[in-house]
Every structure is written in structure tokens, then in C-alpha cells.
Amino acid sequence: MNIPFFRFSLMLMLISSPVIASAASLWSGAARVVSVQVQSRGEFIINLEAASESTQADQEKTEENCSLTEGTRSFLVYPQQHNVTINGAKALLSTAMIAFSTANKLDIRYAQADGYCWVEQILLSK
């Protein structure tokens, strides 16, 4: 085996893997938070309302795989999974709660894996 070629291949794979992973990320489209369900171990689910006419295409993308409850789109956050740190989960939860309590909209960047939609980033807007 050619060691320099192996090292180069491994380095290229490590450098390009986050780019490849982020290419699979999708945005939900801005919508109001219907509920936030917090679990005992720190994980939580953000449920967004059905999308408006302007974001119908976004809803169609998420409705099929992100619906745990009929009429909403559900996005999961588990600390220490899917690149979410404990502090990151706290920040995501506080932002979701602000959006819920002020009736502002969230746009969620998520990755589909294991049959669920895992939150990567959220954008709070009016």
C-alpha cells in the first residue's frame, strides 16, 4: 500500500465529509411554533404549523418525513446526537421557546436520518 496516497485520501475524506453532510440539509420554511415537547433527558421536539401558501413547496418536502402529529411538522433535538452539543441544545430550546411565546416564526435547517428530522440550525423571524 502506498502510505502517502492513503494519508492524502484519508485527509481529503475528512475535509470533504462536512461539506457532503451539509449538502443533505433542508430548510423547513418559516412557520409558527405550535408546541415544544420537552423530554426528561434533555431532548425535545419542536412542532411547527402547517406551511402557508408561500411555503407550500417547503411543507411538501417536510410533511412526508417530519410529521409525528397530524397537521404539524415535527423536528427533533437530542443533546450529544447529530452534532448538537448540550449548550447547543439549550440555545435551540431557548430560541424555540422565545418563538412560541412571542408568536414569531422559525425556519429550521434539518437533516433527515433514521426516519426523523433532526434540527441543525434555526432562524427566528417575525
Query: Regarding CATH, which class?
Result: Mainly Beta
CATH level-two architecture: Beta Barrel
Radius of gyration: 17 Å
Helicity level: 25-40%
Low-confidence stretches: 5-23
CATH topology: OB fold (Dihydrolipoamide Acetyltransferase, E2P)
Overall 3D form: globular
SSE string, helix = H, strand = E? HEEEHEHEE
**Strand count, sense and closure of the main sheet?**
6 strands, antiparallel
Look at the helices and sheets and give the structural class.
alpha+beta
The overall average pLDDT, rounded, is 78
Q: Going by CATH, what is the homologous superfamily?
A: Nucleic acid-binding proteins
Strand content: 25-35%
Write the layout of secondary structure elements.
Blueprint: H1 3-23, E1 26-27, E2 31-38, E3 44-49, H2 56-66, E4 72-77, H3 86-102, E5 105-113, E6 116-125
Describe, in plain words, how this protein is organized in 3D.
With 126 residues, the chain is α+β, with helices and mostly antiparallel strands. It has a single domain, classed as OB fold (Dihydrolipoamide Acetyltransferase, E2P) (Beta Barrel). Helix content is 39%, strand content 33%. It contains three helices and six strands, in the order αβββαβαββ. The chain has helices at residues 3-23, 56-66, 86-102; strands at residues 26-27, 31-38, 44-49, 72-77, 105-113, 116-125. Strands 1, 2, 3, 4, 5 and 6 form a six-stranded antiparallel sheet that branches. It starts with a helix and ends with a strand.
